Amino acid sequence: NAGVTQTPKFRVLKTGQSMTLLCAQDMNHEYMYWYRQDPGMGLRLIHYSVGEGTTAKGEVPDGYNVSRLKKQNFLLGLESAAPSQTSVYFCASSFDSRTDTQYFGPGTRLTVL
Amino acid sequence: AQKVTQAQTEISVVEKEDVTLDCVYETRDTTYYLFWYKQPPSGELVFLIRRNSFDEQNEISGRYSWNFQKSTSSFNFTITASQVVDSAVYFCALSEEGYSTLTFGKGTMLLVSP
């Protein structure tokens, strides 16, 4: 099992450009999450999904959109990137509840110039 | 309000020393879960332990041990005989039944020198 994978690993964008980050898990987990990690801030939840076709806002959702068309995939979109979105993005998944252990992907380092 | 506090921003020890990482949490729920994750320099987040609020037994796994005390709302993590490979940022996290988020502390950076 690959666990949780993220594509791409690194990306540099110019302000105003758009991009999509892909997260895939092969553990048949129901719940999936997108976090961002900034220095000194820990991890903050952007959006999450409790199952295929569902999404919900987390702590810092502004400027991001998500989609969960297939159970194993969770996409994070930036429609118009801003320098404040420079961060490391982590995807995670858990089996069937918010209190289950979350398993994380390797992260995507995004720089917005 | 911050619900997970890791007051130690950075700790430096010499190999073979024991080190304890502190975690204090705040919750009104009676059912909750506490976690520790390790983030080595390579950047991935590695799950270490999950503990529910009804289980106050201490946990030992090799050189790692965890002390959960509800009376002081603490879930501290001790590494015995530290090694250079233990150098990482360690995060404590809280999950509550009524909330969607896994709330992380800001992390403690542990540096183990040879």
What does this structure look like?
The complex is a heterodimer of chains A (113) and B (114). With 113 residues, chain A is mainly β. Chain A has strands at 4-7, 10-13, 19-25, 31-38, 42-49, 56-57, 65-67, 73-78, 87-94, 103-104, 108-112. In chain A, strands 2, 4, 5, 6, 9, 10 and 11 form a 7-stranded mixed sheet that branches. The model of chain A has no long low-confidence stretch (mean pLDDT 94). Chain B contains no helices and 12 strands. Chain B has strands at residues 4-5, 10-14, 19-21, 24-25, 32-39, 46-52, 59-61, 64-69, 74-79, 88-96, 102-104, 108-113. In chain B, a hairpin with a 2-residue loop joins strand 7 (59-61) and strand 8 (64-69). The termini of chain B are far apart. Chains A and B meet through strand 5, strand 9 and strand 10 of A and strand 5 and strand 10 of B.
Decide which structural class fits the backbone of chain B: mainly beta
Uncertain regions spanning at least 5 consecutive residues of chain A: none
H/E topology pattern of chain B? EEEEEEEEEEEE
Compute the CA-based radius of gyration of chain A: 13 Å
User: Rg of chain B from C-alpha positions?
Assistant: 14 Å
Measured by residues with Cβ under 8 Å of the partner chain's Cβ, the largest interface is: A-B, 23 and 21 residues
Q: What share of the residues of chain A lie within helices?
A: under 10%
Gap from first CA to last CA of chain A? 36 Å
* Assembly classification: heterodimer
Describe the sheet with the most strands of chain B.
6 strands, mixed
The string of secondary-structure elements of chain A, in order, is EEEEEEEEEEE
Secondary structure tally: strands of chain A: 11
Secondary structure category of chain A: mainly beta
Number of helices of chain B: 0
What's the average pLDDT of chain B? 92
Approximate strand percentage of chain A:
over 45%
Approximate shape of chain B: globular
Helix content of chain B: under 10%
Summed up, the helix count of chain A is 0
What overall geometry of chain A do the principal axes of the alpha carbons give?
globular
The termini of chain B sit apart by 39 Å
